[in-house]
Amino acid sequence: MKIIDCKRFVLCIATGLLAATAFPKINLFFLMWVAFVPLIYVVVESGYKGSFCYGFISGFVFNAVGMYWLYLMLYFNTKSCAQALIASSLLWIYLALYWGVWGGCLCFIRNAIARKFRYDIIQNILLIIAGAAVWVVLEYIRTYFLTGFSWMLIAYSQFEFTSIVQIAEFTGVYGVSFILMFCNLCLYFWISKRINKYLYIALILIVAFAIFGAVRSNRFKSFGEQEFSVSIVQPNIDQNEKWDAAFREIMYSNLRNYASEISKNKTDLVLWPETAFTELVPNNARMYESAKEITTLAGGLNIVGSPFSDDGEKVYNAVVSFENGGDYKAVHKKNCLIPFGEYVPFRELFAQFFDVINHMGDLERGTDTNVFDNGKLCVGSTICSENFYPDISRRFVFSGAKVLSNHANDGWFFDTAAPFQHFAMNVFRAVENRKAMLVSANSGISGLIEASGVIVERTQLCKKVLLRGTFFQNDFKTFYTKFGDLFVYVCIGIILSVLLLNYKRRKESLCLGNRKKE
After folding, report:
1. Which of 90, 226, 455, 476 is most buried by its number of CB atoms within 10 A?
2. Confidence at residue 218, expressed as pLDDT on a 0 to 100 scale
3. Which is it for strands 447-449 and 455-458: parallel, antiparallel or unpaired?
């Protein structure tokens, strides 16, 4: 019996394409509510091997189409089509494995439940709940396993569906993923079994969460103790020039021009993107003096992205605060580094195949969640990919942050979908902690997001912009801030319950078989 069937193969590809187009730039977010129906149809009609293979195919298509930009970024760094294609394909394959595992688990759950319960309605509801729970647990593992890579969790496709994302205040981003998969499974049973009650369940769930979300979102609109002003710098420095010493003075001259423009109006907070300054603070005296000059001219509390070394040896990707002239006040060193971007795992192994690795250095990993506090403002600042990890923003809030910021250099992605996908994650960090999120990115997208998750302002991609706005800060702590990913543990409990059911079924079958022999 062949594992792969042509018709089912096409349905798997359809799921991958539908799910990918739900993300920006295309941004047909509503497709995510039905995207998995073709794959579910295939998986529940297949054996374990087939279920895994079909899930893997869907996952590979989804990741290759949604993260096509990975090849372009790697080609820019390696100048080799072959190396870029191999490296990007390896990541797409790794991420597709999670889809394959989900397909196999869905098949297992169907078999475990079918032999335990006589009534279809009970079987189907349990399959819907357990199938959604497995998806959540796999997304959670992907977020943190092997340093983690949580790009394009399905919930992030809904970042502009403000009402539905409000549940993240209690469940984190994974609660939205659960609802999406729950509804996809309901719609599968509605279409395949022609039973309207599954459609009604999905619609009631969506409407209930949308109404709840609308009320909750309204409560956190302009939410906070006091309004402050912010200036966000988006310098749009070309990656070919950013690290070239020949362009350094021109680059710093442009930053001075931004500071001069900011100084014309009193600003409480000034945000500069990741590695706005490209030499070490404070070890490089010339650059350090430039940083002090520029931030003093701008005025207010300045948070600046820069490489940082306090001992002359260990180098960190960091954000540093300056205020009212003088030396830097505080520093946050990036906690989670990007493999092959900021450090090289298994260097000796990979360097044999990718020559560019021999020319790459390793940054050190920081462990702090230092809050920039000047007596009025309390800012928790994440650096680029740190906004992948909900727990980092949560820890900043526990450290006293009343507003969050993200400092990124998305110039590596050029004019692709990646900066849009990256920006979407900030909406969830805002809702999870009910803190305004302020984003400064080198080439875009920068913006202001309210504690409600509403995007107040955002910039265009690859434009030089000085974005001015206002925000509120607050010391409110959400359920998610207090208890973290408790919802994920609930999902783990659901999965363990299914395993227990299967164990009892096997034990009962074995006992029954022994009695017959007797």
Report:
1. 455
2. 94
3. antiparallel
Q: Three-state SS across 33-44?
A: HCCCHHHHHHHH
Of 472, 306, 484, nearest to 393 (Cα)? 484
Strands 316-323 and 301-308 turn out to be antiparallel
Interatomic CA distance for residues 441 and 431, integer angstroms: 20
pLDDT score recorded for residue 84: 87
Indicate the burial class of 153 (C-beta count within 10 angstroms; 0-12, 13-18, 19 or more): buried
Q: Which amino acid is at 196?
A: N
Q: pLDDT value at position 359?
A: 44
412 and 402 Cβ atoms separated by less than 8 Å: no
Cα radius of gyration (the chain): 25
Residues 105, 135: Cα–Cα separation, whole Å = 9
Task: State the chain's mean pLDDT as an integer.
Answer: 89
User: Which pair of tokens denotes residue 372?
Assistant: 């920039």
Whether 513 has a pLDDT exceeding 80, the answer reads: no
pTM of this prediction? 0.91
Q: Helices (DSSP H) in 149-223: which residue ranges?
A: 162-165, 168-171, 173-193, 196-219
Contact 460, 444 (CB under 8 A): yes
Please state, as a whole number, how many other Cβ atoms lie within 10 Å of the Cβ of residue 52. Answer: 22
Pairing of strands 447-449, 437-441: antiparallel
